Amino acid sequence: MSRPFAFLLAGLCALSAQGQGALAWNGFALLRASSVNESGPLVMEPISAQVQVGLDWTPTPAITAHVHLLGRTDAGDSTRGHAGIPEAYVEANVHPGGDRLRLRGGAFFLPTSRENVDSLWETAYTITPSALNSWFGEELRPIGLDASYFHGRLFGGATLFRGNDTFGALPVDRGWALRDHWIVLGERIHLPQLFPDPNEPFYDTSVSAETDHRLGWSARAGWNGQYLLAQFTHIANRSDAMDHGSLENWNTRFDVVALEYTRDDWTVAAESGWGPTVIIAEGEAFVSGLDATYLLVSRRWDRGRATIRADWFRAGDVRDRALTAAFLLTPPGRLRPGIEVTTAAGHHRALIELRYSFGG
Amino acid sequence: MHRTLAALTIASLLGFTATATAATLTVSVHDPRGNTVADAVAYAIPEGKVVLPVRKAAAVMDQKNRMFVPHVLAIQTGTAVRFPNSDDIRHQVYSFSNAKTFQLPLYKGNPANPVVFDKAGVATLGCNIHDRMSAYIVVVDTPYVGTAGKDGRVTLNTLPAGRYTVRVWYPEMRAEPAPVAVTLGTNERNDLAFTTR
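Output (C-alpha cells, whole complex):
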C-alpha cells in the first residue's frame, strides 16, 4: 500500500474515532464455488471468498473521502494480491450556475462503466463482469486527478494519471479473462511467458508502479437522456513501451463507445472498445490490436434479476467470444444468492455465489 | 350509537361543504412553440393573511431502475420526504441546493429518517454513484401545488374562494414566467395558461 493512501485510511479512522463528520461504511462478503480452475478466460479457484468494504467520510455534503478495502482468497498468479486498497480518493462537488462539477483526486476506477454500476464498482447484472470491464478492473486504475462536468443532459470529463504504464499487457500476454479480480495498489500480477524459456525473465503488470514518469490521460463525453445514455471515452497511458526491470510497459490507446437503455425493469447495455497497444523490444516496435465488446440484456423482478451477456474480444490475431447467463436472487434482507453459467473459447464454467451485504 | 351517527353525519356534511365551496384552477404550461411542458409545477399563493392547512403525511421520492421517481416532486414548506431505494443496488442521495443541503450515505431499502424541507426553493437531487440520476424537489409556501404530467396541465381543485398569485416552475427554467393574479369564487372553475421563456 503506498504511503499517501495509508495516511488517508489512518485519517479516516482517526476522524471516525473523534466523531467528526459523517462516516459511513458498506460492503459485502461472498463465498463462491466454480466448476473450473483451468487456465483460459474462465480461470477461477474452485472455492473462493472475498470481503470488500467501502468507507466514506463526508464532513460536508460537498466533500467525500472514500477508501475501498478488499480481501480475497483467490489472488490468482500475483504478489501482494490477497488484500489491499483498490480505491482511495477525495472528491469535491461544486454547482456553478446549476451545473455540477466533480473533482476527484487519488486512485479510482475510471467512472465510465455501464456494467459496474453498483457501489465498490460491482456489476449489478452478473457475478463476473464482461471481458472489457474485467480488464479495466484488473489493469487500469487511474492515480491522479479527474474532473467531471454535468450540464443538463450533456456531460464530459477528463483524467490525468500516473502509473498504469503496463496497461495492455494482460490481454496480449495472458489473454482476455472474465473475472472480478480488482487489482489493489501495490499488487503485481505475473504475466505468463509468451514463449516459455527458463533463461528469459518473467514480467509483471501493476497499476501503481510509475517507471517512465510520463502522465497518462483520459477524456470522455456523453449525452444522458431520460432512458438512453450514450458515451465516448478515450484512454491513453502514454507509456514509453519499454521494459523496466520486471515491469513490461505497453503504450496503449483505447477508445470506448457505450450505450445504455433502461426503461421500466429492462436494461440493455453495450460497450465496445478498440485500440492499439505497442511494446518496443530490441529496438523494434511490436503492435497488437485490442478490441472487446459486450452486449447485455437484463430484466429485474421484485426478488430477482436475470441477465444474458454476449462478449466478443480480440488481442492481435486471437479472437474469441463468450456467452454468459446469470440469475441473482434478491430477497428482502442482506443475502443474495446467485448462479452464473459462461461458455467461452471452448471452456464452460458454472458459478454459484452467496453474497452478504453489510452496512448501508 | 346515536352520537356516533350524528358525528359522522356532521363530518360528512362538513366535508361535502368544504368540497362544494372549493374552486378549481387548471394551469397549462407550454413552451413558445406550443409544446406542452411535462413536470411543470404550478402553485397558488393566497393573498392576505390566511391560515394555510399543513400537510402532515410524508411525501415520497423513490429510486427505481436508477431513476428518481417522480422526476419532480412539489411539496409545501415543512413537508417531510422519504427516500426509499427500490433498486437492487445502493444509492447515495445528495442535494447541494440552498433550499436544502443534505446527503444520505450509501443505502438500500429505507433510510431511517425522512428529510424535512423547511425552506422554500428548489432542491436539485443527484446520486453520487450514478451520475445520470437527477430530480427536483420544489418547495413552496402553499399547500395548493401540483405537478403536470405529459399534457403540461396541473389541476388545483381544493382552493378556497379568494385571491391568489399563481406561479409556475419547470425543469431547466432560465427565467420564471410572470406570475398571474387571479380571484376565485366559490365553486368557480378557472383556467390559466403560461408560456415558458
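The first strand of chain B starts at residue 23 and ends at 30.
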